[in-house]
From TrEMBL:
The chain crosses the membrane at residues 6-39. Residues 526-601 form the AMP-binding enzyme C-terminal domain. NCBIfam families: PRK08279.1. It is an enzyme of class 6 (ligase). Residues 82-437 form the AMP-dependent synthetase/ligase domain. The lineage of its organism: Eukaryota, Metazoa, Ecdysozoa, Arthropoda, Hexapoda. InterPro entries: AMP-bd_C (IPR025110), AMP-bd_C_sf (IPR045851), AMP-binding_CS (IPR020845), AMP-dep_synth/lig_dom (IPR000873), ANL_N_sf (IPR042099). It is found in: Cell membrane. It comes from the Eukaryota. It catalyses: a very long-chain fatty acid + ATP + CoA = a very long-chain fatty acyl-CoA + AMP + diphosphate; tetracosanoate + ATP + CoA = tetracosanoyl-CoA + AMP + diphosphate; a long-chain fatty acid + ATP + CoA = a long-chain fatty acyl-CoA + AMP + diphosphate. This is long-chain-fatty-acid--CoA ligase.
């Protein structure tokens, strides 16, 4: 509003107030209200729309942050929270797996045996051990036992093999490796690659492990733990553990290289599992279904610690299964279920079955539910609330969608933004580097403008601390300097988000995945969602490929179609109908499968390296006809003509 309009607005407001009210203070209040309605109408409307949401958030967030400050003041760790629940309800069944159930007391006894046995093996405060085992109650009890010794546990991804497995062990200097018998063969492959390591094999309660042999030279853990004392560690020793100590290493998914070992401190973990519990109004009566790997944050911290520290019961499922998901939820009377990545799409693609609505699940919690299938998912499966959140293991920029807004990964009230660590900055779409002003500082995004999500670092507060990785160079590479002031630092999430006028955040893409074509930025996640919907929710990966002497990158889609059911004409029509010209993939690759991380994220690195050269790729390749948009076979001759410029794009 210009100065002339402001003058008119003020005059009108003054006249209205003078005529309507006689008392001076009434006139002042009325003037302020009238001024706001005329001059700040947009802001007033925004406040009115979000007021109920924001008041609930302030109430819950105040409780949450007060609790965190109390824990910091009292030096209260996960061990203390676990012992509180143990004293309160020792016989409550909190972990369920297969046909077994574990109570607080059973978990306490087993973890004490772990602590006492490994103390005799020389494990002491500050040491690091590696845990390589599929999800089960023993898994939780083992790392809890090491917590009682003040040692840290590196949770190794059970899908890793050979070089990446060796790297994950060596990067934390792990000399004691505890493994499940089901993974013996994986360790045989790297025998000799990890020097001076001691191996401990566990068969546990898994029926399929009983006939398996352990790695040659490893120590059988089942019998040794059975003989170990279940006496608790002295209280004075437990109190030596600080809330700022690291107790776990949790590895990144490795979508762009070798997995990085993120440092997990007690206060960081407590922040992560208290947040959803409080903001989504969970209670100790909840039964949580966790079909996620326990070596990642979502299952291993957000899920498991609802049982350890918050009084809930958690059902552990070793592997996610479309056919068993709702059957399990009904069987165990689950009220909360976790999801991640593409799991929701896989469930939607599955056949209809009675159990999918005959359950007690009121809330699903996770990240990765795409906006395009959100409403279809909650309607089909009768879900009352979706707790979609944004956050990575090492990230200090965490937000959560606590009010069911479709597609949003979270929100920040307008009055909280100035003091909140998470914010968006402008970034160069080609280099992924932050844009800076004449002072060399980052430029904040406006409402509705896509930008890089960062988290301003303040290591004195749990919500904004960044503890980094075991590799110091990897930690430094994630930190931006001189953000909004000289000397100010921030965590670089690597993700592009957008924030609307109501404070809702929406995920757009990874900085490395977004590419530029025809002068426009192409968000691969949006194109993937469109293609996936057209091909009946099958996997689809979109990425940019380089063409000789052509600016930018052309779009290419890799589609999973093992049964050869994809109708190329229908696909072309769906793409043309739903996407602007610049976002439509020019190249298509039909695959039998695509690599996924354990958190159901699509791997693109190898696909990008392959490009669209038929000489390198055995899968069927297609090229979108420039006139009709229909996909035609991409032969070596067509490829050569594109690269030489005979076919102009």
């Amino acid at each position: 509003m210009g100065s002339k309009q402001q003058y008119i607005a003020a005059s009108v407001a003054l006249v209205v107030c003078s005529l309507a009210f006689s008392r001076t203070w009434f006139q002042i209040i009325a003037f302020a209200v009238c001024w706001s309605l005329i001059y700040k109408r947009k802001q007033v409307v925004r406040i009115w729309k979000t007021l109920p949401r924001d008041l609930r958030f302030v109430k819950d967030a105040a409780h949450f942050l007060a609790l965190m400050r109390y824990y910091q003041f009292k030096n209260c760790t996960i061990i203390d929270l676990f012992h509180r629940q143990l004293e309160k309800q020792p016989d409550k069944k909190i972990l369920k797996h297969l046909e077994t159930s574990w109570t607080y007391q059973e978990l306490e006894d087993y973890s004490n045996r772990v602590a006492n046995y490994f103390q005799k093996q020389g494990i002491k405060r500050g040491d690091t051990v590696c845990l390589f085992m599929e999800g089960c109650p023993e898994y939780v009890a083992i790392w809890l036992g090491f917590c009682k010794l003040g040692a840290a546990t590196a949770l190794i991804n059970t899908n890793l093999r050979q070089a990446t497995l060796t790297h994950s062990i060596n990067v934390v200097a792990g000399k004691h490796i505890i493994y499940g018998a089901e993974l013996t063969d994986a360790l045989k492959e790297i025998a000799g690659s990890v020097s001076d390591a001691k191996y401990y094999g566990l068969k546990g309660n898994r029926p399929d492990n009983h006939g398996r042999t352990l790695l040659e030279g490893s120590i059988p853990l089942d019998a040794n733990l059975l003989e170990a004392s279940k006496e608790p560690q002295p209280a004075a020793e437990l109190k030596k553990t600080k809330i700022t100590d690291k107790f776990l290493y949790i590895y990144t998914s490795g979508t762009t290289g070798m997995p990085k070992a993120a440092i997990m401190t007690y206060i960081r973990a407590m922040f992560m599992f208290h947040g959803p519990h409080i903001l989504l109004h969970m209670s100790e009566d909840d039964v949580v279904y966790t079909p996620l790997p326990l070596y990642h944050t979502a299952g291993g911290i957000l899920g498991i610690c609802q049982a350890l520290c918050m009084g809930c019961t958690v059902v552990i499922k070793t592997k996610f299964s479309v056919s068993n998901f709702w059957t399990d939820c009904a069987k165990y009377k689950c009220t909360v279920a976790q999801y991640i990545g593409e799991m929701c799409r896989y469930l939607l693609a599955g056949p209809v079955k009675p159990e999918e609505t005959q359950h007690n699940v009121r809330l699903i919690v996770g990240n990765g539910l795409r906006a395009q299938i959100w409403e279809q998912f909650v309607k089909r499966f009768n879900i009352k609330q979706v707790g979609e959140f944004y956050g990575a293991t090492e990230s200090n920029c965490n937000i959560i969608n606590a009010d069911n807004t479709v597609g949003a990964v979270g929100f920040i009230p307008w009055f909280v933004k100035p003091i909140y660590s998470a914010t968006l900055i402008r970034v160069d779409p080609d280099t992924s580097e932050p844009l800076r002003d004449e002072r060399g500082l980052c430029i904040p995004c406006k409402e509705g403008e896509p930008g890089l999500l960062i988290g301003l670092i303040n290591n004195r507060k749990a919500e904004s601390a960044f503890h980094g990785y075991a590799d110091k160079k990897a930690s430094e590479s994630k930190i931006l300097q001189d953000v909004f002031a000289k000397g100010q630092s921030a965590f670089n999430s690597g993700d592009i988000l957008i924030c609307d006028e109501l404070g809702y955040f929406y995920f757009k893409d990874r900085t490395g995945d977004t590419f530029r074509w025809r002068g426009e930025n192409v968000a691969t996640s949006e194109v993937e969602a469109v293609i996936s919907n057209v091909i009946q929710l099958n996997d689809a990966v979109v990425y940019g490929v380089e063409i000789n002497n052509v600016e930018g990158k052309a779009g290419m889609a890799a589609v999973v179609d093992p049964e050869k059911k994809v109708d190329l004409k229908q696909l072309a029509e769906g793409i043309k109908k739903s996407l602007p010209t610049y976002a439509r993939p020019l190249f298509l690759r039909i695959m039998e499968n695509v690599n996924l991380t354990a958190t159901f994220k699509l791997k693109k690195t190898e696909l990008v390296a392959d490009g669209f050269n038929p000489a390198k790729i055995s899968d069927p390749l297609y090229f979108a006809d420039l006139k009709t948009g229909e996909f035609q076979p991409l032969t070596q001759q067509v490829y050569d003509d594109i690269q030489s410029g005979k076919i102009r794009l």
